[in-house]
TrEMBL record:
This is Nucleoside diphosphate kinase. Residues 1-138 form the Nucleoside diphosphate kinase-like domain. Belongs to the NDK family. It is found in: Cytoplasm. ATP binds at residues 9, 57, 85, 91, 102, 112.
Amino acid sequence: MERTLVLLKPDAVQRDLVGEILARLERKGLKIAGLKMMRLSDELLNEHYSHLVGRPFFPEVKSFMQLTPVVALCLEGIDSVNTVRAICGITKAREAAPGTIRGEFAMSVQANLIHCSDSLETAQVEVPRFFKPEELFTYSDALEGYLYNSS
Ligand code: GDP
Ligand code: MG
């Protein structure tokens, strides 16, 4: 089982898409290990988007991410990192594949509704960056045997 980090960005909150996006991830079979709302500080965003520091659009990305609180999720499942990434679609939402969250609901590079960890290594850094150990839950899911039948 892998854990991955998802953030439902301020455009998801503003556009009342939190439930829709959460439902898609949940219906796929991903288990919710953590779920909360939070405001992102400058410090947290500098860390989270450290690969973008220095890019001309970085200040805009930061202020966008601070427009409203975001919904942070930790999702669990076999290959959850790649699975969630595929469900999200590519960064440039206008060109994201139909059927993906970005492909179905977004038009922008910046306002693309959702963040998800891009690799297992990243996920292992991002989950503890957003969730304290006591905010993450381990429990059995009644349908897991069916969900992963023969993996
Ligand atoms: P992601 O992993 O698909 O979210 O993409 P990145 O890690 O490359 O970038 C992080 C986030 O920064 C993206 O989801 C966008 O919200 C934003 N971003 C990336 N590239 C651009 C850009 O060229 N312009 C603007 N305004 N925002 C961008
Ligand atoms: Mg990224």
